[in-house]
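#struct-pred

JT: dropping the chains for the assembly here, can someone run the whole complex?
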Amino acid sequence: MSTWSFYIATLVVYFGVDLLSGWSLNLQYGYAGVINFAYVIFQAVGAYVAATVTLGPSGGSTTFQQYIFGANLPFPVPLLLAAVAGAALSAVVGLFSLRRIRRDYQAAILLIVSLIAIQVASSDVALFNGSNGVTGVPRPLFSAFGLSIGSWEWVYAAWVLVICGGVYALVQWLGSSSWGRALRAMRDQEDAAAAIGFNITALRLQVFIIGGAIAGLSGGLLVEYIGAWSPGAWGYAETFVIFTAIFVGGVGNNRGVVIGVLLVPIIFLEIPRFLPQIGYPGLIFSLQWIAIGFMWMLCLLLRPRGILPERRPIARRGLALTAASARDEK
Amino acid sequence: MTHQGTRDFALEQSAAPKGEATGDDHAVALSARDLVVRYGGVAAVSGVSLDLRAGEVVGLIGPNGAGKSSALGALGGQIKITSGAITMGGRSIERLVPHKRARLGLVRTFQSTSEFEGMTVFENLVTAGQGAEGAALMHVLFQRKVNRESEVRAIERAWSILDRFEMAETANAYGRELSGGQRRLVEIMRCLMRDPKVLLLDEPMVGVAPRLVAKLVNDLKTVRDDGIALLIVEHALEVVSELCDRVVVMAQGEVICSGTYADAVANKEVRDAYLG
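RK: done, full complex below.
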């Protein structure tokens, strides 16, 4: 029973973390058209920062690992710093990758940045302990409330869902605001949006930084639950899983993202755990990634707007646009 | 006639259109002098000069490859000029990026329809109406009252413009659900939401059903009557003759004639290069 409890609580935490990733990437891609193939590095930096500012100074009680930013900050400061780290890295990467060049070039640059980042983190041991990563991250509030390990897992899962509620409200509000409409205008016709006065580079950078902050927060939440973080946890392919979830659920629809995240990274990636082993060990895992790619392509071919497409706001005289009722597109 | 000669002729004509007195700078909404646009070693635009006055429609015509769209892009800021000067209300704007020119009142449409296709017609208009100021993230986050007021103003204006162009029934349609002519109108209405001083239109009649062309021409006349200066690149000569107060004819990157449509038709060089 406790094994199942742990498993379900862990799935809830993963679901929440993937939801944050989905909403963040949906804000960037679904609303603004920014193809952020480096998404996972912003989640990773949040995880590293949250871990190291919780672990204490490097060389203290954890002499077997080296890292920067070592501190022993109380909950929830590490999560806030994780969000700040995600935003700061996004600002740096965005400044050189989001200039007025074609979107496919931007996507290529960001993918390359992702590959470089993982090589740097793996090779530079002084940064975040190299390929071994950081481990032994204390569970927040575990001792303060005297919780049992089983209770703590569910308390933490509930905490993650509370954060999800707040982030959902934020992305919904921003997405339906005048700023969100400017993002969608930029997504649909960049030159036309500039020709009526929108600063495209500034809009891109803003959405990139906000998305990066949410990504960093999601990384912080994850590392405080699993207690460890290494380059093996954030390969560039992780970004593609979230993209697939968005395409399946509905590009530009945050509720669609919930369905996509439930279907792709949770149900689809968990099913193989319950399948008997076929072929050599690891075959099913490899097939999963191939299946993810096919899922993405099939979705683009058969239902390019996903299960729940972007909603159409209905304008009526005398009503504010954001207050108007909305219906799903047929 | 040499190319230099034609350039001088164009400048002279454009400085005093329709017999107006020279030096009437207040009426000049947009002025370009000796514009040059080069792509590598190829000069797409060579020394083009023109003036646009408030409440005037100027047609920019010529054969394919004449440099008309490049000239329009140079004026709008989408294409970087090699040399030359562009002024708006006496202010030099040739170094400004497109969104800064738009904020000064210089807006444009594109050869391919460029409505925001994932947004409804109404959203297209409100987005333009609120503009960069109304959509500023800082306003959305920290000045919600200001943001809400700008949205209310944009909504009122959007309904007003939709009514004026008899498009209110399409308010909740996506661009992809509209006809070619309606999509052109959406672009024009979206530009008008910005209260422009100068409107650049790149082939506005492309894709418009013949029965809607007359309506679009009449709509553009009402835009002109609002005191907006219009520069139109157009191949449909019947539209040019009906709509434009003046025409500027380009060939091989240069202005070969500037004057009324009748002047252009009577010009041998224009007939040889364009009208055949």
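JT: nice. The mean pLDDT of chain A is 90. The radius of gyration of chain A is 20 Å.
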